[in-house]
Design brief:
The structure is a single chain. This protein has 8 helices and no strands. The chain is mainly alpha-helical and about 210 residues long. Helix 2 packs antiparallel against helix 3, helix 2 runs antiparallel to helix 6 and helix 3 runs antiparallel to helix 4. The chain is elongated.
């Protein structure tokens, strides 16, 4: 009797496991893990950029006649971006995610303007600390673009599973809902850092050039 009950219980478990697999349960688990990993990398790269900005600001402050409005916009954009609490749960809140995305885009825009304006200051462009920071920021922007692309793809795959039959039945039963995603509009333009051509360090700018403190 006990053996029969055990066999029946085992058959029920096997049937349940097969039904969950067929309805996408395991797929949801796998895709959720991919989203968590890709989101974590996005946050790490954004944080790296955030950490570089204070050093950049301090170097630019050394250029006495640098446009203060441009510098201030970077400081304000960073403050607003860091004011948003980032957590794994953010991807489940479309409105909060949109605010996060907008804040990061604003910071990207402010940094781009600063680097473009810096072309008008030969002494700043010849500053080794500024050159190194600019290179680090460009590298970080590239890593952000890669991490963001991976996250976009992971969420797209997950959201398709949420709406596809028969996995949509599992989504309804288990409470799986769409996750927020980055807008792909102008993704390449947003991610691409401005090109700034620095003069060779062996040939510093002329002290008579415009923008050099007297």
């Amino acid at each position: 009797m006990k053996t029969a009950i055990r066999r029946w219980g085992l058959s029920v478990l096997v049937t349940l496991a097969l039904s969950l697999t067929g309805c996408g349960y395991n797929q949801f688990q796998s895709q959720n893990e991919q989203i968590k990993a890709s989101w974590s990398e996005v946050i790490n790269q954004f944080q790296r950029r955030t950490d570089l900005i204070p050093n950049l600001v301090n170097v630019v402050k050394g250029q006495a006649d640098f446009e203060q409005s441009t510098l201030l916009s970077v400081v304000e954009a960073r403050t607003k971006a860091t004011a948003i609490q980032v957590s794994p749960a953010l991807v489940n809140d479309p409105q909060a995610f949109q605010k996060f995305q907008q804040a990061q885009q604003n910071l990207s825009g402010a940094l781009s303007r600063l680097l473009v304006v810096s072309e008008n200051y030969p002494a700043l462009r010849a500053n080794q600390a500024f050159i190194e920071l600019q290179a680090q920021l460009e590298g970080t922007e590239n890593r952000i673009a890669v991490a963001r692309h991976r996250y976009i793809q992971a969420v797209q795959d997950y959201n398709v599973t949420v709406h596809s039959f028969p996995s949509n039945l599992t989504a309804m039963v288990m409470g799986y809902k769409e996750k927020a995603n980055f807008s792909v509009e102008n993704e390449q333009a947003i991610a691409k850092p401005p090109t700034v051509n620095f003069p060779p360090t062996s040939a510093p700018a002329s002290p008579q050039g415009p923008g050099v403190p007297k």
